Model the fold of this input.
Amino acid sequence: MSTLDREILALMREVTERVILPRYRNLAAHDIEDKGGNDPVTIADRESEALLREGLARIADLPVVGEEGCHADPEERRHLSGACWIVDPIDGTRNYANGKPPFGILIARAEGGLAQSGWIFDCLTGRFCAAHLGGGAFVDGTRIAARETGELPPVAAISLVFMDPAKRAATMEHICPQYRLTDIPYCAAEQYPRLALGINDVSLFERTLAWDHAAGALWLNEAGGRAARPDGSPYRVDGDVYGGLIGAASPALWDGMAARLAAMPQP
Done:
């Protein structure tokens, strides 16, 4: 494990122990708000992001693009095209606020719109995923290679939440029957590891916010799976928020989903 990985892991553990776990299943009603569109935020999200910003500044003095910071000031997103940290202080807030797993912390370092490093921490199990562009993907310091489930039909977690009604209906008719559907964990910090660790084969995302996908997409690609836009272009942290994204345990599984999407009648 590199020095940088150790520093990031120490920071994630510190924030988890100081803020996230003490408030887990211990939130009062006034500690939870809705940012709109059934998108909850808790006092722990805000406290976690504040501590992560402080800790990351000690590691490297770069602008921070955080989920809660961007909600308060959308202009913070302008940093996504340059060198920056990207932070999701509690990924899976819906689960966390309801007192159930999974949830975690996501951090990425990006430059020129592309993730250069990414880290995923499961706050309950302590699983730590790390990746650096061109350097492979690791779980708890051990290099891993993405593997398929081996099931037929392949196992898919398809997120329909942010699709418009017509696209949702078309996806349910033309895409979903080609796979064995499994649950959506509402947590990218769980979904991306599932794609590389032989649990899921493919995932389809509609909304692709940088703090949700920067770390996981890089990690999956470095593990030998594939995460890319449906047209095959790479995921950019400064790209279209609703550009869609396919994540798969192998390039072959990615190709299969991309071909089905391309053949799907457009609503």
